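Give me structure tokens for this 773-residue protein.
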Amino acid sequence: MTEGTISRRTLLAGTAAAGLPLPALAAAPTPAAANLFIGTGGHGHTYPGAALPFGMVQLSPDTDVERWDACSGYHRTDTSIMGFSHTHLSGTGIGDMLDVLVVPTRGPVQLVPGPLDNPDAGYRQRFTAEHAEPGYYRVALESGVRAELTVTERTGYHRYTFPAGPAHILVDLSHLVLDKSDQPPLVTDANLTLDPDGTLTGSRTVHRWAKGRHIHFALQTSRAPNRVTLYGDGDAQQPAGARAVKGMRLKAVLHYDDAGAAPILIRCGISGVDVAGARANLAAEGRSWDFDAVRRAAQTAWTREFDAMRVEGGTADQRTIFASALYHTLIAPTLFSDVDGRYIGLDRKPHALARGEAAYSSYSLWDTYRALHPLLTIVAPDKAQSLVADLIRQTQQSPYGPPVWPLQGVETGTMIGWHAVSVIAEAQAKGIEADYAAAWPAIAKRSFDFTAPDRDNSKGRDVYDAKGYVPADVWFESVSRTQEYAYDDWASAHLARAAGRTAEADRLLKRSGNWRNVIDGKAGFAKPRFADGRWWSPYDPIQLGHMPKPWWRDYTEANGWQATFLNQHDVYGLIAHMGGDAAFEARLDALFTAPSTLPANAPPDISGLVGQYAHGNEPNHHVAYLYAYTGAAWKTQAMVRRLCVEMYKNDPDGIIGNDDCGQMSAWFVLSSLGFYPVDPVEAVYVFGSPLFERAEIRLPGGKRLTIEAPGNRADTPYVRAVSRNGKSWTKNWISHAELMQGGRLTFTMSATPVKSFGQAKADRPPSNGRGAA
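Here you go.
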């Protein structure tokens, strides 16, 4: 079916797509001038579209679905847009989502996007005049259409301004992320229905990453189309007047004889529960056709979030990077409960929440337990409390216990460990109110019941308990498993004690020392160890594993160098195990100065190398701060400042690795403020090197925390002294409780190292519940 014979190449040449007058922009300022394109290039895997803080809908352009660098559906280097879909993952290393693609265009109807290198072969469109800000996105398409996007929490709003004449809007329910390893069918149980009131509703089940997840939508247009055509599997056109179609790969085309007569608006509600939930979400949040009012409300929501934190000093680029990083820490986890409180739990069943509660998705916990969740306990403690309550529910509902990477009602089991326990234990240690005892039975089952079902993330629990480590000839990623299971034991021990389970707490605390069994103290490296107790020999810390198979690794997205310093919760134990302060400090020096060579089978996640330190991946994010535990805080200060400057840029390729749902960004936010949580469960922050001259954080109860570094410059990375509320502060760390009292924390900076600061053992940070011996 066609609408005239004009070619798309003619459309590009013959219309003033880039020159169409844009509507007057709202006067509300862009929050802190964030650059939403930071991370959309390189390996950042972010998207530039419209979203609300932690919202269910992320309405954004999609440019590709087949390359790893387009896991979010978008890459800044691409030159054509497929359309605009309603759900996206921010910064992840695996792709999914991209639900309900909407394609506004003119010319002949095309039902496939075509390849990236030949946009004319499908419905792809070249584009110009791209603009993004928190809560709003616009672009000019080659068909002459100006596209604008904004959102409520559960509803996406589109405004399409067409040139005069016929045009159409394609709704592609077959659109999704693809991968060469995928096994079809990737979409099942799809349906589209055109209701008597003109609402287009639909559902599909997706078997991509979160296999078996369900998504439902209800879509309305401000102007009724002149006709609607439905397409079934194989792009089979349904009979004229057909009102419904079922299958797997479905599409609908809304035809307008004079699309340019007035802008066409779309509002689309989504739900993970059912179509009724999508309808209810749309009815509750899509009450008007005032696009600009919705946009202003989105801007207001973002301004409220950004007002919680302000910085002064640094360079203009650094302030932009900070604002953009803060933005990226506030878009995931994503809302997953409908307006009536219903959601799909990790048991794949619907549940209902009490008023005021919320369920969430997109928890990249292997990454985000390290810095993002700690950051939220400072800048958004109410949200942190809501997320902890949700993680407790998910822990109760999941057959696998505490989650590691839950996505829309599916535990993907991605990465290793069950790091929800860290987020929960951290909140408990920081005094955030929650029903922690409710999580304990499922945590106990994960910790001690070796007949309980496992995903890949928890393989080898039985032998870990029996031998004290995961043998390298039994399970892949054995070294990292041992270390990260030990960390989860540390977190779980706190929760056991809080639940009054003293014996279990003692057992977990003892088992949290299992990290020792994969660290060869004499060699000074984390090494694969076999079931008979032998170390892998001859050992090469550059390698990822002892076996030649590319997929068999002894470390998780790391090598021996990087895994050696994975221990977060018993730093003084690690220092002693490796020969004491001087030996450990020398080993850290060696990490940062070793040749930056990697084996051929290294994953792209190991990036941002300084020596063998890899800032582009999470296992090393705390490592620069470990110098502080040896009394060499000045080395922490120098390296943290270097990382802040070298690893982040005001550029699409401005995040050195995957942003991983905000973890890379959270590292920058916290480190640029001057402190970082090496072990979140310890509930303390280790000082580094503040980047700005002044920062102000809004705290609960009307309190404010002001962090000052008067005269701070690019050449003053070192801390000479610290004062708190005007009084000398000799410690190289501060507790969460002290930080949340607010007041003034002042850093006196220096161009030369001040080796005495933080050197005394009494001033070094605590670890494993104790100070330096």
